[in-house]
Design brief:
Layout lengths: L1 E5 L4 H12 L3 E10 L2 E2 L6 H11 L3 E5 L5 H14 L2 E5 L6 H14 L2 E3 L7 H10 L3 E8 L14 H10 L10 E7 L9 E9 L2 E8 L7
Parallel strand pairs: 1-2, 1-5, 2-4, 5-6
Antiparallel strand pairs: 2-3, 7-8, 7-10, 9-10
Length: 219
């Protein structure tokens, strides 16, 4: 049996994929939702995430969607995979009960299993697992009223976690306090080389402007 993984390219989806594989599940596909050339959840260019997926060796399915038709497009993405033998989808939820209920309902309607390897972990435990496994996650955006501009483009570290603790910010950013892109770790063949070309501000967020190193601006 094979499983697909819901994949933003961020720390939670990578860690969930890793933990699922460690438990014996075979991950055959990554499902990534995009909008107007950017990853739907955190805004990183689709080309960067395609390259990231290549470095895992797992085929990626990128699906164009708005939030309004997300559920419909999620089902459209999963249905062909079910015909190829996919029995379930792996998600990176940690404690957001509403989203867990959503994935269980939608997967139930599709006749596939919803797998939640990180569910119920305390935020600090999830971060500990991420860093202990050797994942390197770049902070690609953050709510500007919660996280300082200086952290955009830097990697998640215990210094960053201590900073969040001092400010009373959720350590995993489960409510969108910050988003990440994983550039290295045990599921990668080699490091994803990206460069931070600057930091922009928009929509109440700091956003690290990323490009693939030596790409000539092609993301």
């Amino acid at each position: 049996m094979s499983y697909a993984a819901s994949w933003s390219g961020g720390k939670d989806s990578c860690l969930a994929c890793y933990e699922a594989a460690r438990s014996g599940l075979r991950i055959s596909h990554l499902i990534n939702f995009v909008y107007e050339g950017r990853v739907r959840s955190h805004g990183v260019g689709v080309g960067i995430v395609r390259l990231q997926a290549e470095l895992t060796g797992i085929p990626i399915v990128q699906v164009e969607t708005s939030w309004e038709d997300y559920e419909e497009n999620f089902k459209r993405a999963v249905c062909p995979l079910v015909l190829r033998g996919v029995k379930g989808v792996v998600f990176g939820d940690i404690y957001l009960d509403n989203h867990k209920k959503w994935v269980e309902r939608v997967c139930g309607e599709l006749g596939v299993e919803a797998v939640e390897p990180l569910w119920g972990l305390k935020p600090e435990e999830a971060i500990s697992r991420l860093l202990a496994a050797g994942f390197e996650a770049v902070i690609v955006s953050a709510q500007s009223e919660l996280v300082g501009e200086e952290w955009a483009g830097r990697v998640v570290s215990w210094d960053f976690i201590d900073y969040l603790k001092e400010r009373g910010v959720d350590l995993c950013g489960e409510n969108g306090e910050y988003h990440t892109l994983v550039v290295n770790g045990p599921i990668f063949k080699r490091r994803l080389e990206v460069k931070v070309e600057g930091v922009a501000r928009g929509g109440g967020r700091w956003v690290a402007v990323l490009d693939i190193a030596n790409s000539g601006g092609r993301t």
